[in-house]
User: Which sequence fits this backbone?
């Protein structure tokens, strides 16, 4: 993604570009009687800030639900990543 105006301070600077994303995923590791890996479903919401064509900051929240015949539960995950491309 290439922002119309790259992020910067001063008169030449701009806000960069913002991207909103939403993802749903599922994983089923049960196959007959073996292996019994369980199932997982997750929903991810993301806010990505593209500073310029070579740099972005990602903010993500993941809600994961796990079900297995021996255990189960859920997880709330917050993650941030800074990415540079050369």
Assistant:
């Amino acid at each position: 993604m290439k922002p119309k105006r790259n992020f910067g301070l001063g008169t030449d600077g701009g806000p960069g570009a913002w991207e909103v994303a939403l993802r749903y995923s599922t994983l089923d590791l049960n196959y007959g009687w073996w292996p019994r890996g369980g199932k997982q479903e997750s929903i991810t919401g993301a806010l990505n800030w593209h500073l310029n064509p070579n740099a972005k900051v990602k903010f993500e929240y993941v809600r994961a639900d796990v079900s297995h015949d021996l255990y189960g539960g859920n997880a709330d995950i917050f993650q941030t990543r800074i990415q540079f491309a050369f």
Remarks:
- Strands lie at 17-30, 36-52, 55-67, 72-84.
- The radius of gyration is 19 Å.
